[in-house]
Specification:
14 helices, single chain
Length: 518
C-alpha cells in the first residue's frame, strides 16, 4: 500500500479533517504509555533529544517515572542528526518510524488502515499560522485535554500568545542550491549538509536545515515570557520531539527534500558509500529506531533516498511560488553559462571549487535586547581582487566561462544560553537607512536552534558554538555592478528580530567572508 501524506490545512486545519482527529487519538494512545516503553510518546521524543532539567520543568518527567535500561538509552536516545549530511535521511526514518507506531494505534482504535501523517506547509497562502486543531485545549473527544495542544508553544511575539511562522523571515532559497553535500571550510554548506560521521549537533547546518528548518523551530517554540531562558518545546532539540507539531514540520521538511530532487537545479543525492551506508559503515552509531512491536529497526541513508521505494508519497511536491533567490540564480547562470541543460549549468558552480577567505572582523560581538550590532569585515586585497577578476573573466567570455565566484558570509562561534533567538544580517546598508527599505542588502535570517547545547563545555565541540553560513552572492554581484567592490571593508549589521535577554549571553566570535570559485 502507498500511503498519502496530505496538507494539514485541508478542510481548514481543524478537527473536521479526520486525518488530524485520528492523529490526535494516536498521540493520546502513545502518551498513555510509560516512559520506558519504546513505543511511547516520551520515549520517541527522547530519541531526538533529552535533558532531565528541561523535561522536569516542562512536566514531562517526574520521580514516579521508571527510566529505560541504560542499554536502551544508549541505543536510542539523543540520536538526532544535525549539522550533517545525515540530517535529512535520519529524520526521514524518524518520521516513518513514528508514523508506523501511530498508524498501529489508530487501527487498534478502529481508525483507517491507510492513515498517514499530514504535513504543515507554512509557505502556502494563509497557512503560516498554527493549525487550529493544535491551538485549542478542547477536542471532539474531551474538554481541556487535547493531546495536540501544549503549553510550551509561545511563538515569535513578546507576549507569547500567538503562534505563527513570520513569512518575511523564512524562505525556500535552499531549493536553489545544486549540491546536496557542502563544505565546512566557509563555502557553500550544501542543500543537505556537510560530509560528517554520526553527528548529534554539528556545525555548520546545511541550507535546508538552516532555512527554513531551524527558524520554524525557534519561531513556533519561542520562550516563556515570564522566564526568557525557558524555551518552548520546539525551540531546542532537547525537547522538540515532544511537541505534536514537530512531526508535521518535519514531514514538510521531508517533502521539500523531494521538491528539491525533482527541481531544475538539483544534482541529486550523494552517491558516496559513506553516505549511502550511513555512519555504521565507518564504525559510528547506527541509525536505529523502535518498531511498533518494540524491536529495533536499523536503516541507512541509502534506504531513505528514494521516495518511490518507501510506500508513501505527498499530495503536492511543487515548490510553489518561485523565490526571488531562484530567479536571481537562474538569471545569473544563464548570463554566464553556455546554453545547455539546467543541471549541466549548475554543475559549473558546484562545490568542487576552491574556497578562500576574503576577509574577517577583528573582535567578538555581543547581541542583546533589540539593538543593532555592527561590525566591519576587513578585506584581504589579494582575495578581493580575485573576486573582481572572476567577474572580469565571466564578462569577457560569457557563454564559456564559469559564473563569477559565489560569496558566503560566515557567523562563526555563535554561543548563547537561549535557542529562542533570531536575527537578521545586512551587508553594506546605506548609512541611517531603514533596513526594511533595503531587502536587496539582506544576507539572511539566522535562528539559534541548538546553540545552548553547542555552547556547553560538555558538548562534543567543547563549547565552540555554532557557525551559520549565508550566501551573499547577490549582494556582491550588486556591489560589483555599482563599482563598489574597490573597498577595504564591508559593513555588517546584526538586527535581533525578537528581544534577546542579557542573561542569554549571545555572542558571535567572528564574521568572515569567503569566496568559492575557480
Amino acid at each position: 500500500m502507498t500511503y498519502l501524506r496530505t496538507n494539514v490545512y485541508a478542510n481548514g486545519g481543524d478537527f473536521s479533517n479526520s486525518t488530524i482527529l485520528w492523529y490526535a487519538r494516536g498521540v493520546a494512545a502513545m502518551k498513555e504509555r510509560a516512559l520506558a516503553d519504546p513505543t511511547s510518546w516520551r520515549f520517541y521524543g527522547a530519541i531526538h533529544g533529552f535533558d532531565t532539567d528541561l523535561w522536569r520543568k516542562d512536566g514531562y518527567i517526574s520521580d514516579l517515572d521508571a527510566m529505560p535500561a541504560q542499554e536502551q538509552i544508549g541505543l536510542y536516545w539523543n540520536q538526532c542528526q544535525h549539522g550533517s549530511w545525515y540530517f535529512l535521511p535520519w529524520h526521514r526514518g524518524y518520521v516513518l518510524a513514528i508514523e508506523a507506531i501511530l498508524r498501529e494505534a489508530i487501527v487498534r482504535l478502529g481508525g483507517p488502515t491507510d492513515w498517514a501523517l499530514p504535513y504543515w506547509n507554512y509557505f502556502a497562502p494563509n497557512e503560516n499560522g498554527l493549525p487550529p486543531a493544535f491551538a485549542t485545549r478542547d477536542w471532539p473527544d474531551g474538554k481541556g485535554d487535547n493531546p495536540l495542544f501544549v503549553e510550551q508553544r509561545w511563538g515569535p511575539d513578546k507576549d507569547g500568545k500567538t503562534v505563527y511562522v513570520p513569512l518575511d523571515q523564512v524562505n525556500l532559497e535552499a531549493l536553489t542550491d545544486p549540491d546536496f553535500t557542502g563544505v565546512s571550510n566557509g563555502g557553500d554548506p550544501g542543500f543537505g549538509g556537510v560530509d560528517t560521521g554520526y553527528q548529534h549537533g554539528g556545525r555548520p547546518h546545511g541550507r535546508l536545515e538552516g532555512q527554513p528548518h531551524d527558524l520554524v523551530h525557534v519561531f513556533v517554540g519561542g520562550s516563556n515570557p515570564a522566564d526568557p531562558l525557558l524555551p518552548g518545546l520546539m525551540t531546542t532539540p532537547r525537547t522538540a520531539g515532544l511537541d505534536p507539531i514537530f512531526w508535521l514540520h518535519h514531514a514538510n521538511i521531508d517533502r521539500l527534500w523531494e521538491v528539491w530532487i525533482r527541481g531544475p537545479v538539483s544534482l541529486g543525492n550523494p552517491t558516496e558509500p559513506k553516505w549511502l551506508d550511513g555512519p555504521e559503515s565507518i564504525g559510528d552509531h547506527p541509525f536505529v529506531l523502535p518498531s511498533p512491536d518494540g524491536t529495533a529497526w536499523t536503516y541507512t541513508p541509502g534506504e531513505m533516498a528514494n521516495l518511490a521505494t518507501l510506500d508513501y508519497e505527498y499530495d503536492d511536491v511543487s515548490a510553489g511560488a518561485v523565490t526571488s533567490a531562484m530567479k536571481r540564480r537562474m538569471e545569473r547562470l544563464r548570463e554566464f553559462a553556455a546554453p545547455r541543460s539546467m543541471k549541466g549549468i549548475t554543475a559549473m558552480t558546484s562545490r568542487r571549487q576552491n574556497v578562500e577567505m576574503v576577509g574577517a572582523s577583528h573582535r567578538p560581538l555581543r547581541v542583546a535586547g533589540r539593538e543593532e550590532v555592527r561590525t566591519s569585515v576587513q578585506l584581504n586585497d589579494g582575495a578581493r581582487r580575485r573576486v573582481t577578476k572572476s567577474f572580469t573573466a565571466a564578462e569577457a567570455d560569457a557563454g564559456q566561462a564559469a559564473a563569477p565566484d559565489r560569496m558566503f558570509l560566515n557567523l562563526e562561534n555563535v554561543r548563547g544560553l537561549s535557542d529562542a533567538v533570531v536575527f537578521q544580517v545586512y551587508v553594506n546598508l546605506p548609512e541611517d537607512a531603514n533596513p526594511a527599505d533595503h531587502p536587496e542588502r539582506l544576507a539572511g535570517s539566522v535562528g539559534l536552534f541548538g546553540v545552548t547545547e553547542a555552547t556547553s563545555a560538555d558538548d562534543e565541540h567543547g563549547g565552540a558554538g555554532l557557525t551559520f553560513v549565508l550566501e551573499i552572492t547577490h549582494i556582491i554581484d550588486a556591489l560589483h555592478l555599482e563599482n563598489a567592490l574597490e573597498t577595504d571593508a564591508l559593513d555588517v549589521r546584526i538586527l535581533p528580530v525578537m528581544h534577546v535577554p542579557e542573561e542569554a549571553q549571545v555572542s558571535i566570535g567572528r564574521v568572515s567572508l569567503f569566496r568559492q570559485g575557480r
